[in-house]
Amino acid sequence: MLSHTSGAPGAPTYAFRPERLGPIAAAIATCTETTYRSAVAAFLDQLAMIDSVPASDVVALTPPAEGFTASALQRYGDVLRQQATPYTIDARGRATPSSRIPSTLTPGSGLISTVRDLEQFDLALKNGIVPSDWLARAWTPPTDAAGRPLPHGYGWFVQAYNGERIVWQFGVNDNGTSSLMLSIPRRGLTLILLANSPGLARPLPLSDGDITVSPFARLFLSIFLR
Q1: Taking the CB of residue 189, how many other CB atoms lie within 10 A of it?
Q2: What is the pLDDT of residues 179-208, one digit of tens each?
Q3: pTM assigned to the model
Q4: pLDDT tens for residues 89-123?
Q5: Is the per-residue pLDDT at 174 higher than 80?
Q6: What CATH number is attached to the domain comprising 24?
Q7: How many distinct structural domains can be found in the chain?
Q8: Which residue range(s) make up the domain with 189?
């Protein structure tokens, strides 16, 4: 599921389908003996990601549901009220304000965060919150029957650019938001972009596994990986 592959172990095929990640929520809830949302919230607190929200519908809970306190729900509500107005872009490039639709948290969508909080997450990866051998495995994509690397590792897209490994991920929401996170592990460099429109991801074919279709990524890579 994490590599978005299916088929025989020796000949996997790739298809980017975030909805397949759903069963991971039950596994995490079982391992942490809590709900998936509570487990994610605890992880956010551990990393001091204080301006991140485990989906907008969390504020509909009544304490102590799922272990959330009134102060935590108040903080989430304060963050949600600070969100930028989302926009959709039509075929002629015209921007129109969009309405936010309450979302729930799944392994593939729903998390609300900020650039500073995602920087906290990135620094935690760099500082070893995930054991180095596990991270190396996550950043090593499976190969197809011919031995060619597939586009997606375990949780991250992985590809080579000018002879160097780069890892990245993106997100997009029909209501008018998108995100892009691109790292050059050997250089210790990470680009984090968040937008209040789908423009970072659509209409780009990012799910095919080539980050160079993004003009933002190309600019970043052209500066640091010439």
Answers
A1: 16
A2: 999 999 999 999 999 999 999 998 899 999
A3: 0.93
A4: 888 888 899 888 888 999 999 999 999 999 999 99
A5: no
A6: 3.40.710.10
A7: 1
A8: 5-224
Q: How far is CA 89 from CA 94, 179, 197, in A?
A: 5, 16, 7
State the Cα angle at 8 between 18 and 158, rounded to 5°: 45
Amino acid identity, position 137 = R
The span from the CA of 13 to the CA of 150, in Å, is 8
Residue 18 · residue 206 · CB < 8 Å: no
Least confident of 87-91, 136-140, 147-151: 87-91
CA distance 214 to 203: 10
